[in-house]
Amino acid sequence: MHELALVQGLLESVLEQAKKHQIKKIERVKIVVGDMTSAMPESLQFAFEVLRRDTPAGEAVLEIERRPVKLTCQECHFVFRPEGLKYSCPQCVSGRTSIVEGRELFVEYFEGE
Amino acid sequence: MKVFMARDLLQTNAGMAQRNRGVFSRHNILAINLISSPGAGKTTLLEKMLDALAGEMNIAVIEGDIYTSRDAQRLEDKGVEVIQINTAGACHLDAGMIAGVLKEMPLEKLDMIVIENVGNLVCPAEFDLGEDFKISVLSVSEGSDKPAKYPLIFRQSRACIINKIDLIPYTDFQLEQVIDEIKDINGNLEIFPVSATKGDGMGAWISWIRDMQKGKSRSAGE
Ligand SMILES: Nc1nc2c(ncn2[C@@H]2O[C@H](COP(=O)(O)OP(=O)(O)OP(=O)(O)O)[C@@H](O)[C@H]2O)c(=O)[nH]1
Ligand SMILES: [Mg+2]
Ligand SMILES: [Zn+2]
Q: Is the pLDDT of residue B221 over 80?
């Protein structure tokens, strides 16, 4: 249930930015959530609906873009999307890989007037 | 109007974690973050670690618990500093909570800080506390499917302890298969099958963590 805390932080920074740009009504907030994060889209949506009340984002839509996991091999530098939970390199079989995509958890933009 | 932000949702925590990391480094303290489902055996492992190591180094424990201080009480008679953080409902510790208690600790004297996170395999994986590394604890009684269900924590850990191996004969737990699965998720992970209560495998784990502590204090002198 840490989604509540995440969305709280998200709203605070969006509202602060909106104020700076003299935006009175926020219509859309777009966030990017990697598959390799523990944030559940449904919980984020739910938290957003609860927390946006009585703010300039009161009627805003939360758009969530998922990013699938992409890895790179530390040995042969092959870049690949893992199948299931096989995160080892399909080319050289090395288990030493790092995550290139899939750990995202950020606000990309918001829209309003 | 469209306003681009590119703001990380964990940005505040990340900044705080970086500050904690600096504090640990300056004081040559190895900090580890123990993460598991409820009841996998974190406190029992800690008790045994303290029995084995408290005579040779100064260890302090930070106990994260949603409401109680039972685990802290269990560790208190081991003669080490134990600090309790009640998260008041939150499912994980965050870097700010750790920063808050570091101020109260005798950092000059310490060699290692062990943080027992709230029993939960999901949320604690996401929150960097500034630790040197995370240790995930998986127990035989939870069944074989935890790595597949919660890959993130195994990906984020440096070592994984598979606890309660004394129970294997009474379950359908497939040790070799689980180890292979964990290695698929993270080929860099050190894996320690142990029984915290019976003692099997504990020697290897204790000597590994002792070496990690020595490594940290050596690198600090450079
Ligand atoms: N059979 C067996 N039981 C164990 C072992 N290690 C711990 N236990 C038991 O498992 C139960 C839970 O152990 P704890 O150490 O309290 O687990 P924990 O992870 O600290 O639990 P929370 O802090 O509540 O999340 C206790 O009854 C322990 O005695 C083991 O190696 N084998
Ligand atoms: Mg405990
Ligand atoms: Zn490779």
A: no
Q: What is the pTM (predicted TM-score) of this model?
A: 0.91
Domain-wise residue ranges, chain B: 15-216
Lowest mean pLDDT among A37-41, A97-101, B104-108, B203-207: A37-41
- Superfamily of structural domain B15-216: P-loop containing nucleotide triphosphate hydrolases (3.40.50.300)
Nearest CA in chain B to A31: B6
If you measure from the C-alpha of residue A106 to the centroid of ligand 3, how many angstroms do you get, rounded to a whole number?
A: 29
CATH code, domain carrying A67: 3.30.2320.80
For chain B, the three-class secondary structure string (H helix, E strand, C coil) is CEEEEEEECCHHHHHHHHHHHHHHHHCCCEEEEEEECCCCCHHHHHHHHHHHHCCCCCEEEEEEECCCCHHHHHHHCCCCEEEEEECCCCCCCCHHHHHHHHCCCCHHHCCEEEEECCCCCCHHHHCCCCCCEEEEEEEHHHCCCHHHHCHHHHHHEEEEEEECHHHHHHCCCCHHHHHHHHHHHCCCCEEEECCCCCCCCHHHHHHHHHHHHHHHHHHHHC
Assess whether pLDDT exceeds 80 at residue A76. yes
State whether the beta carbon of B138 lies less than 6 angstroms from ligand 1.
Answer: no
Domain that holds residue A47: 2-15+23-112
What are the pLDDT digits (tens) for B42-100? 999 999 999 999 999 999 999 998 877 888 888 888 889 999 998 877 789 999 999 99
Look at A103 and A5; give whichever has higher pLDDT.
A103
Residues of B in contact with A96 (CB under 8 A): 187-188
Name every residue in A having a CB less than 8 A away from some CB of B: 1-2, 5-6, 9-10, 13-14, 17-18, 21, 23, 31, 36-39, 85-88, 94-97, 99, 105-113
pLDDT score for B67: 78
